[in-house]
Amino acid sequence: MDSPICEKPVLVYDGDCSFCRLWIGRWQELTGDRIQYQPFQEVAAQFPQIPRENFARAVQLILPDGKTFSAAHAVFRTLTFVPGFAWMLWLYEHIPGVPMITEFLYRFVARHRNPLYRLTKIFWGRHFERPTFTLPSWLFLRLLGVVYFFAFLSLSTQILGLVGHNGILPAGDFLAMVESRVGPERYWFFPTLAWLNSSDAALQGICVGGVLGSLLLILDLAPILVLPILWLLYLSLVTVGQDFLGFQWDALLLEAGFLAIFLAPWHLWPRRPQKSLPPRMPRWLLWFLLFRLMFSSGVAKLASGDVTWRSFTALDYHYYTQPLPTTIAWYAHLAPAWFLHASVGFMFFVELAAPFLIFAPRLWRFVGAGFMILLQLLIALTGNYAFFNLLTLALCVLLFDDAFLRLIFPSALTEHPCPEPSRPRHFSLRRWLTVPAALIIFICGWLQLANLLSVEWLPPTAFHLLVDLEPLRVVNGYGLFANMTTERPEIVIEGSNDGESWIAYEFKYKMGDPRRAPRWVAPFQPRLDWQMWFAALGDYRQSPWFSQFMLRLLQGSPQVLNLLEQNPFPQSPPKFIRAVLYDYQFSTWSERRQQGEWWRRTLKGIYFPPVSLNRSQDGSTE
């Protein structure tokens, strides 16, 4: 033998077998230069002690001391040179039956190498090497920065009107109420920096700090420091935001933002993606988050018992009854009934089946990601759902690998890929922080699914962990539009100085004037406009914030008026104010052409009786 071959173990394989070459390439990535790989067509003569037919039948591992192993035994011995895989050889050598089963499976594979090669190409494509996710992780963190940017920037223009000192639900009053009723544990159950200062300047400062922090994250400046700060700032706002920051995408941003902390590279200055190899565990947890988000949304629709979902007629109503439709929603609503019903079927497929492809082989994972991306784009075209669609798309990016994204992105980002290092044999600081957090989040995520699926065999105490973690919003339940509304009640607020002539307040994006087209606003979210949609679904007494809103309009609060499109009483607040309820529906093609109206509406009655600062019109004190 030539000395170079004797210096280290040699794995000899069939160089004419495409399936063999595919797997040898994968093993080479795992073992590095610790093992030599040679086709028997070139080196068989150097090992005369091994019959040539043995080389053609199975791989042969020759150790430097001359010992030879073949077939499954050779495979397991080869994997002992990969850190973390030695347990496989231990099972082969110590567990009765394992050698017989694995050798049988190896012979089966060897006899069917050609069809298995074709299947491998179908499931994994041309890139069967061990996938790396440096560029997807880098892009995800940049997109997360964009989501944080829009979330904080949107809030910075509304926070004072919503929860400022003269806002609808003042944060200071809320915290004072909590302090009077809850002991020291209030800091855990209501985690917010506003405990230090809940003034208007402090709330505005949190928003501005979030905007600046998100820009740093976009620029890849100190992400390991910026991400925890962004998460804490947003959690602070969600806690004091009360009704106005209780949306599912707020919870989704906090959960994704928390997991991103463990994904972040530990550097201060921007680097190209290949300079920072992402850890696997946070990526798996983010995959699991995407799975729960999509799958829970589908299950929730079926579990609710809503007849429109089960009869595939939900989209007959959805486009005009959703909180803030876009212009395209008007056209989508006029699509043929068969198309709307088929679209519901497509939605169920994407939410109930496609999530399982997240854990499938490479190409099928891409297919699942494609379906989920398509669904999010269609939702974004027809409805204003704040940053929800953008954040979900960012999670989908993590399903692709470097080999795929190199086909799309400029070579400046993708050239000189850095090989993934061997798994360390010791726990680093990152692992000491990640492993326990990942374990808790993984368990809580499954508990959320079990709760949604009404699993009965789990003891009630198992769900206490969810309750304990709920204030941090790091594991949440999801399920948008579990129940479809089939009517669109809409509140119109009117003011008057004489109690006879009433003038309507126009909101920035909420439905009002029937001639005004639905507007685009996402990824910003007009939170008062959204809450007005929820308030219209019930009595105003079920939305305590609504009376406060009416009070602020009577007081002429500039911060609250800033949340509206225009103030019909610019000189002084009206003496009286009321709210009337209409039923809204999209207009037809002919109504739109003839009258120029996007909506037709029918008066349903009084939603909130006329009141003044001193006395309501019926004489009672207000």
Keyphrases for this structure?
single chain; 3 domains; 4-stranded mixed β-sheet; 4-stranded antiparallel β-sheet; disordered N terminus
Give an account of the 3D structure.
α5 (71-79) packs across α6 (86-94) and α18 (315-321) runs antiparallel to α19 (327-333). Mean pLDDT is 89; it is low at 1-5, 416-427 and 615-622. The protein has three domains: 3-124, no CATH class; 134-416 and 429-472, no CATH class; 489-611, no CATH class. It has 30 helices and ten strands. With 622 residues, it is α+β, with helices and mostly antiparallel strands.
What structural category characterises the helix and strand content? alpha+beta
Overall pLDDT, averaged?
89
Q: Give the DSSP E fraction (strand runs of 2 or more residues).
A: 5-15%
The low-pLDDT segments are 1-5, 416-427, 615-622
What's this entry about, in short?
With 622 residues, the chain is an alpha+beta fold. Helix content is 53%, strand content 9%.
What does the secondary structure layout of this molecule look like, with pairings?
Blueprint: H1 3-6, E1 10-13, H2 18-31, E2 36-39, H3 40-43, H4 52-57, E3 60-62, E4 68-70, H5 71-79, H6 86-94, H7 98-111, H8 113-124, H9 134-156, H10 159-163, H11 171-181, H12 186-189, H13 200-218, H14 223-241, H15 248-263, H16 280-303, H17 307-310, H18 315-321, H19 327-333, H20 337-352, H21 362-382, H22 388-397, H23 402-405, H24 411-414, H25 429-452, H26 464-469, E5 489-496, E6 503-504, E7 506-507, H27 527-536, H28 544-555, H29 558-561, E8 564-566, E9 576-586, H30 589-595, E10 599-611
Parallel strand pairs: 1-2
Antiparallel strand pairs: 1-3, 3-4, 5-6, 5-9, 7-8, 9-10
Helix pairs in contact: 2-8, 5-6, 9-13, 9-15, 9-22, 13-14, 14-15, 15-16, 16-20, 16-25, 18-19, 21-22
